[in-house]
Each structure stands twice: as C-alpha cells, then as structure tokens.
Amino acid sequence: MSETSFSSTSLSIRAAELDAADELGKLRERFRLPEGVVYLDGNSLGALPAGVPGRVADVVSREWGELLIRSWDESGWWTAPERIGDRIAPLVGAAPGRVVVGDSTSVNLFKALVGAARLAAGRGDAGRTELLVDATTFPTDGYIAQSAARMTGLTLVPVEPADLPAALGPRTAVVLMNHVDYRSGRLHDLPGLTAAVQAAGGLAVWDLCHSAGALPVGLDEHRVDLAVGCTYKYLNGGPGSPAYLYIAERHQDAFDSPLPGWNSHAEPFAMAPGYVPAEGAVRGRVGTPDILSMLALEAALEVWEGVSIEAVRAKSLALTDFFLECVAAYLPAGRVEPVTPAGHAERGSQVALRCPDAKRLMTELIARGVIGDFRHPDVLRFGFTPLYVGFADVERAARVLGHVSG
Amino acid sequence: MSETSFSSTSLSIRAAELDAADELGKLRERFRLPEGVVYLDGNSLGALPAGVPGRVADVVSREWGELLIRSWDESGWWTAPERIGDRIAPLVGAAPGRVVVGDSTSVNLFKALVGAARLAAGRGDAGRTELLVDATTFPTDGYIAQSAARMTGLTLVPVEPADLPAALGPRTAVVLMNHVDYRSGRLHDLPGLTAAVQAAGGLAVWDLCHSAGALPVGLDEHRVDLAVGCTYKYLNGGPGSPAYLYIAERHQDAFDSPLPGWNSHAEPFAMAPGYVPAEGAVRGRVGTPDILSMLALEAALEVWEGVSIEAVRAKSLALTDFFLECVAAYLPAGRVEPVTPAGHAERGSQVALRCPDAKRLMTELIARGVIGDFRHPDVLRFGFTPLYVGFADVERAARVLGHVSG
Q1: Which residue of A55, A143, A285 to mutate against B (max B Cβ within 10 Å)?
Q2: DSSP characters for A244-284?
C-alpha cells in the first residue's frame, strides 16, 4: 500500500467521523443537488433549495396566472423588497428596516456610493474629496466606484487593502471595501477597518457578496455606514437573484438616492409629480420589483430556519481547514500554492489555489464531478457552503485534484 | 323590451360577429386566463402566456438545480440580455444589436438620460443646458429625469406635451417623452416630435412602456436616439420582468453609461481593473442578469410567433372603438367622460374614463369579474391587449359598467 492510499484511507475515515458529528449535516436535505457531484462553486451560484421549484410554480401559475394584478396586494408582491430584506437582515447582523432587496449588486453599489458621497458632502467639509476603493476588488466595484466618483465630483483612489489604513486621512470622504476578496478568499477586518475609516472622518461602504451567508458580518454592531451584497452565492437565491442594500439607521433620513424611482416614493400610488422619499430602507427601492426572482429568493431563505450563522462559520472553517489538510496530503508540496490565508481571522469560506495549469485542472475536475471554478489567469477557486457541503465531499475533491494534477 | 336590452342584444350580436371575423382571436389560446374574467388590465400586468410555467420549471429544476454554474454557458444564460433584446427589437422596429434587456424601467431611464446628456455634451455646444420632460408623464420618469439632470449639470424643464414644440430651442439638450400617456391613453406623435427635437438640435428619448406590443413604434425608421420600456404590460413578461434599453446604432460607440457594471465590459471574464465598454447594445448591461425573470420573459415572447404588430394595432383600435360605442350605448350621456382621444392617431391601446366615483365603480367591476384599474383621483382605466381580449369581452365590460354605474 502506497503512502498516498494509506493517507487516503485515513482521511476518508476522518471525513466520515466529521460528517457524523456535524450538526449542520442534515441541512443538505433542504437542497436538491445532482447525484454524484461535489459542488464547491456555491460562491458563484448557490445550489437549489428544495422549496424553490414549488414556490415558483405557485407564483407563476396562481399568483400571476389566476390572481393577476390583484397579487400586488393580495399576494404581498408590493412589500416583498422590504419583507425579504428583513429576512436577510439577521444573517448580516442588521435590525429590521435597514435592508431592502432589489436590482443587481452593481446598481446597489451605485446607490450606496453616491448616497455615501452625498452624506459625506452634507457634513460640510469641502476638503474631503476622495473615494477610496480596494484595488484588488471584484472589477464591477471599481468600475461603478469610478462612475460614482465622476458623478459626485470625488476623486477615485485605488488602494491595496494592506495600504488602506495609511491612505486614510483628512481627504477621505468614502471608502468601498470587499469583506471577502472574490479571488483570494481573504477576509478583511470589517470591524477594524470600519472604525479606522470613521476615525479618519470617512464613511465605510462594504460589499458583502462573498461573506453574507458564510460568516457573521455584524453590520449594526460594527456601525457600518452602508453595505451591499448579492443573494445568489451563499444565500442560494438563484441565478442573478436580486441584490440588497443596507442603510444604517442613523443615515436613513439623509440618504439621497441617485435612483429615486417611484417605488421609493413616500406615496407611490399618489403618482405625484414631486418626489418625496419614503422612510427607512424602502428609500433604496427604485422601480417595479422583479417578482419571480424575488419570491424564489424568499423561498430560498427558508433553508435558514433554525440555523445560526455562528454555527455555519464554525463548520466553514472546519471544511476549509480539512480541505487544506487533504490537499497537502494528496498533492506533492509546491504543486499548488494556497492563496487564501491560513489564519482563520483572514479566511472567508473559500480556498483559492494557484498553479500554472489551473484552467486545465478545473476542466478535468469538473469532468469528474468536482465543480469549483477557474479565475483568470491561474487560480483554482473552491467555495464551501456549510449548508450542503460535507467533509466527505471535501476529501473527495482534494483526492480528485491529486489525481488530475499528478 | 327596454331600449337598453334591445341595444344590448344588438351589441352582443355585433361582438360575436367581430370575434368570428377576428384573425387574431385564436391567439387567446396562447394564454392562460382565469375562467369568467374579462381582463382589461394588461397595460398594468399582462396575462400569463401558456408556455411560461413549463419553461420556468425547467429553468429552476434542470438548468439551475442540475446544471448549476455550467448553465451560464450551456443554457445560454450569459447572452440572454442581448438575445431577448433581439427578440423584442422587431416589435419596436429595431434591427438586431440595438436592444438589451435587464434592470427596471427606472434604471434604464437613468442610463438613457445620462447617456443622452453625455452625447449632447459631446457635441460641444455649452449652451444646451436643458432636459425637457413631459410634465404629465408617469412619475418615475420625472423623478429619474430630475436625478439625471442634477448629476449631469442640466436643468430640468417640465413641459406639457402640447407645449413641447414651442419649448424646443437652442438650449435643448435632451427631451424625454412618453409614447402613450399612462393615465389618459393619449398616443403622442413619435415621428413628428422626434424630428422636431432633432431639428432643434436635441436628442429624443422615448418611454415605450404603454406602446410596445400594442402598436408599431418604428424606432429605427423614425431615428429615435434612445428608448426604454417595460416588458410586463403588452409584452406579458410577468410581474416586474426586466425592462429594456434601445440605443440607436449611430450612438452606440459614444454611449457612455453611468452604470458601467462588469456585464458591460468588453471582456467581462478578464476581470481587469480598467473599464473598457463592450460594443453595441451590450454596453447597456450592468450587473448579473436576473435569469428566472429574464427567461420567463423569453418564453412569454413566443406568443408573438407569426403575429404582425400592424395587425395587433388594427385590432386594438377596433376594440377601443367598440368599447367607446358600447359605453355610449350602455351609460347615460355624461355619466363618464372619455379622457382618451377619439382620433385613432392620438389613441393608445387603452380607454380612460373619468367620473367622480371611479374608485367605487372599479371595485364593483372587479367584484363582477371585469378587471381594469383605477388611477387616482378619478380615472377608470381599461387596457386592451389584442392578443387575448375579444369583442365579447369588450361588450361585457361596458355592459357591467352600465349596471354598476346605474
């Protein structure tokens, strides 16, 4: 018996033991996953919650087809953006009335950044002219930040996350940061950076796409100013499901949206020529909400019933720890280079591995039923959704990676 | 036999004859409509096309649930915004590559108006400082125009549609108009007003929410600059289904979106820090497209197979003519006042009737299975979707209105 197969047997046994002891293991039944697949791409598109197909069928055939226009009231369509926002709120540490669902992440980023720039301008310090943005962030954040800066008169300043504290100062108006970097999986220090930005006199805007649903965020507790996130990754809302916007309670009355659509009006059905913004997070609404996708998301959020985000975080760290251990056991040293930080305090719910033939390896992995994704130019990215990924999945993924990279 | 019942019999016979001769009558089979209902609110939420429930179920259970992330390529999700745009294009008189689907109407209005303001600025005439907007338009248009004006340095000038030609001049940068007024049902002269705006040196932006799918628009033919529209009214895409943006071919290379999300990048998966816009209408994309709603819309558009928009327009005018005739026969003179113009050239696909007790009357109509809607403060609004509304429906609606208003 070779060393590899010995360690393989031993790690398989460990995986079985870990799965047996996993209190979240039964949550997998709340999802429909294809047979024989290890799905480690929930940080790109979350798996299908079992309750979604039936709910969507009912929305289409009964609520739309039979009740027709009456469903805006009778089926609760009109209030869905704030109702579903309140459902997401506890997962990101927000009280009710602070999160509203709708539009894409990019559109919400625009609202948040322009809104933050206006809040900053309202403080009357004309010397605050800079919008700082994480230079390594998901590109849409940079593109939208550039547009928001251009349209509010701010200067865009790209900064490496490590250099951010030193870049803060009397010119800082707004700072946009990613809680977890989409490529490396690095978790940034949201409490510390938010406090630093605010101590420098700026407003802190966070993009939660790669953290919400995978780890505690604590928006209210850490006094984040504004935040956005998507719902199709760890929240399993479905492809392109609507994003959300968080507005801290202390900013809601002064939040001045650049997209004041009729849904954000205090009395939308008065159809009045003058715009009067609604109170609360509803002010972040824009146009008519996309009901099919939004109610699919609402059904998807039912998988969180009775689940604590702290337990999810504990399992996420155990999964990524175990994956790194299995990779170290199954692959020769140096074959792949972990990009994701080893320290728990700096690790999201993914593991990124760098190697020159990453593109080919991911194709081979997918052909063998292990689905992660490739990020240009040389990164294998594996996301671990604790609600439906188990330790045996993790062991198998690393073992198959060992085979295809051998 | 009273005069009313005599005329009722006569109009019922006329309705049956008109339905028998209606070449579009068989299209009703392409929809699922509740039994016993006359649905005259398709200008608010179109009815459910029969092919949608099955298609949505397949998207949810197979494309999302089984294929998961692979569906972005294999199921054609990624290219859906431009593919569905090309499907809508012939209905609004546009060539392929000029329409892109996604986001709400309000968000597309913002893109179109800021884009138009930048095109205007690019012409180098600093004296063009005004954004003119129809003062009677759907409120979101006015609110978004106000925001676009504020963020581009233009001055918003609300104008009554009748006063628009006189308001045009050397200060005109951009003009936003509604093709059909949402309240009165008045059809504006798109070719004539577009030409007048352009003759004055401005750019013409049209909101097609209440015309697309009900009558020919001719965007390319009439050299419209930019246009937006929703898809949940006469295009039957479902509640809050994604809207669309039209960019005239001559403006595409210079179109400069205020929402340059990663989906509008020339190479979105390069995830490059610098923004380089894609070519064509794709430049109007923003974030990840909302796939469930978008593919429901795509399935809904199949009802247009073999249908000409000219035939739809002819039937629409016949339906509204017949409705006005029935209302005149069944209600005492002066009981309701038609707000929609009598002339075909000025009439959309709806009839608005004003009366002081409109709110109560609409409640009673709906209780009797005749669904229209009420618009504050005193308007009964009836929309006529020629694909599924017949002449017997029209006669019944007017007859029931006669009863409840008697």
Answers
A1: A143
A2: EEEE-GGGGGG---S---GGGBSSGGG--SS--BPSGGGGG
CA distance A342 to A254: 41
Q: What is the pLDDT of residues A279-336, one digit of tens each?
A: 999 999 999 999 999 999 999 999 999 999 999 999 999 999 999 999 999 999 999 9
Q: Which one is the CATH code of A3-32+308-404: 3.40.50.10490, 1.10.10.10, 3.90.1150.10, 2.60.40.10?
A: 3.90.1150.10
Q: Using the beta-carbon criterion (under 8 Å), do A56 and B107 form an inter-chain contact?
A: no
Task: Name the residue in chain B with its Cα closest to that of A151.
Answer: B151
Which token pair is A58? 């009912």
Residue B111 annotated in active site = no
The first and second tokens of residue A405, run together, are 């990279």
| Topology at the third CATH level for domain B55-304 | Aspartate Aminotransferase; domain 2 (3.40.640)
Mean predicted confidence (pLDDT) in A41-69: 97
CB atoms within 10 A of CB B62: 14
Q: Which residues of A touch B261 (CB under 8 A)?
A: 104, 106-107, 140, 143-144
Please state the domain extents for chain A. Answer: 3-32+308-404, 55-304
Q: At B37, is the secondary structure helix, strand, or coil?
A: coil
- Interface touch B60/A41, C-beta < 8 Å: no
Question: B3-32+307-404: which CATH number, 3.90.1150.10, 3.40.50.200, 3.80.10.10, 3.40.47.10?
Answer: 3.90.1150.10
**Mean pLDDT of successive 10-residue stretches along chain B, which has 406 residues:** 63 97 98 97 97 98 97 97 98 98 98 98 95 88 96 97 96 97 94 98 98 98 98 98 98 98 92 90 97 98 97 98 97 95 96 97 97 94 98 98 95
Does B290 contact A104 at a Cβ distance shorter than 8 Å? yes
- Of B57, B147, B288, which is closest to A260 when you measure between CB atoms? B147
From the list B41, B86, B103, B207, the catalytic residue is B207
pTM above 0.90, yes or no: yes
String of b and e for A126-139 (b: at least 16 CB within 10 Å)? eebbbbbbbebbbb
**Which chain A residues have a beta carbon less than 8 Å from that of B47?**
65, 68
Q: Locate the chain B residue with the closest alpha carbon to A158.
A: B273
| Chains A–B, number of C-beta pairs less than 8 Å apart | 255
* A3-32+308-404 matches A55-304 in fold: no
pLDDT at A258: 98
Distances (CA, A) of B151 to A125, A152, B146, B148, B203: 20, 7, 9, 5, 18
Contact A139/B262, CB-based, under 8 Å?
yes
Contact B289 A240 (CB under 8 A): yes
Is B258 within 8 Å of A151 when comparing Cβ atoms?
Answer: yes
Considering only CB atoms, which chain B residues are within 8 Å of A45? 64, 68-69, 72
**Eight-state DSSP code of residue B188:** P
Lookup: tokens for B399: 């007859």
